[in-house]
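This protein record is not my work; I was only asked to verify it. Would you go through it and say whether the fold makes sense for this chain? Here is the record exactly as it was handed to me.
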Amino acid sequence: MKTTIIGGTHERNMWMYLENHLGPEELDYEDLVIIDVNTLENDEQLFTDRVGLRIAMDYVNDPDKIIILMGQEPEEVLWSVPEFIELMSRSNVDFVDFLDPHLIPDLYQKLSNRKNSYRDNAQGTLT
C-alpha cells in the first residue's frame, strides 16, 4: 500500500471504503494522504494537541498530494483553528467526519474526479 495513512482504525477503514468504491487501481498511488485530526479531548481542553494538523501542513505545499483530513469534531470547532482554516483554503485538501457517513460518497466522487483530472492533464503534457 503506497498511500500514507497517519492515524489508526478509522483512517484504515476510510482507505478500505474508498478502495471498494473507486477500485484499487484508482487509489493505489503515492499522492493520497489520510490524516487524523481528531484533537478534541473535552470541552475544557479544546485542541490541546494539533499534531494531525501540523503533520498535514508538512504535506500541503506539494500540489501532487491529495490530503484527506479526518475528524469527529463539529466543523464549527475546527473552523476556529488557524491551521485548519489554512488547510481548507487549499484545493488539494478535503475534510470528512468519519462519523457522518453521508459525506463519504461526496469525498470519493471528488477523489475520482480529481484522479481523472490528473490523468487528463498528464495525457495533455505528453502530446
The two ends are 31 Å apart (CA to CA). DSSP finds six helices and four strands in the chain.
